[in-house]
Amino acid sequence: MEPVKHIIIPVFLNNLGCPASGRCVFCDQAASGGTPCSPDSIESYLKNFISGLEKENISKNEYSYEIAFYGGTFTALRRQVQASFFEAGRSALKAAGESRGGRFEGFRISTRPDFIDIETLSFLKENTVKTIEIGIESFDDGVLEKAGRGYSSAAAIASCDLIKKTGFKLSLHLMCGLEGQTRDVFLRDCSSLASAGPDYARIHPLCVMAGSRLGEFYKAGGFVPRPDSELIEETAYAMSFFELNNIKIIRAGILENDKFRKEVLAGPAFPNLREIAESLIHSTVYDFIRAKFQRPSKIIIETGREKTLNYLVGYKKENIKKNNDLLLEFKNKILYNNAKDAMPYILISAENNELTYVLTRPDVLKQYINKF
Fold first, then answer.
1. pTM
2. All domains of the chain in start order, with CATH
3. Measured between alpha carbons, how far is residue 296 from residues 264, 282, 293, 305, 323 in Å?
4. For residues 223 and 341, what is the distance between their CA atoms, to the nearest angstrom?
5. β partners of residue 173
6. What is the DSSP secondary structure assignment for residue 358, as one 8-state letter?
């Protein structure tokens, strides 16, 4: 039986191993990271986490999980320190009986492209690492230099190639709104990321943090961030473009918490950024309606999923408010018995049923990209 849910257990290293500490202009790891773990504390944390899965009735179905080391540059740590984290993870799994209903699939680590080589990848493979997340942020050399990243676009691409060739799953982080990262540069970054062939992607619109060097520049008037609306538009573009290229979006926006939001001076630090971007993507459906239907006909919009209906209505009903001149009726066809294909993604018809159109999700994504 295939697992019905894949769970990632996060272990935050809180900037541990980062060779660029203080150099990356946008970074304030103290605000954006979670509670840090050491090898000494990780075993207890993981045992409690795995035990908690069974208490939540998740064990009624099979599930798989990874242990993920986030928030640091894992492969920049001394080899024995890396090994101690893996050993702590294995000890926790053994103590928890690897969870009655679960299936451990391996470790996931985050690092930088300039700390990847064959020897390192061999060590990771020996320790059952399955997924490597790389903080690329941009593929443009000028943007990387201004951000203080300390590596080139060529080095980033080479690390991606090496990771893919050695059989790991690859996840890439991309930012928008960095200094020098114009819209044209960002679109090229999206194309470069897709060409690298990752399995997953994270999209982070720039948030100017009080504890970062960029925050100091901002307060002194030396950096003017782009409007939130533009960064949300670019986030929506990346989400659409990557999904059409079969790249799964793990997250849109940085890990949000109250501590993080209090430190944001500028930027879209919204806990529901992905929902906002999806609403923007689905706003193009109304352009389609205006092009295909004559007013004042009542337009009936049917969906098979509540999420799709929510995206069409829009964040804070924004799409409805902007199109209040249209006569609209929404219907949500709830699906039973896992009949995922029984209802089109979006079905649009006029009240007299003379015209009916079906939109798939790829149709909607393409409409947004073409409008961009």
1. 0.91
2. 5-271 (3.20.20.70), 280-371 (no CATH)
3. 45, 22, 9, 27, 13
4. 49
5. 135, 202
6. E
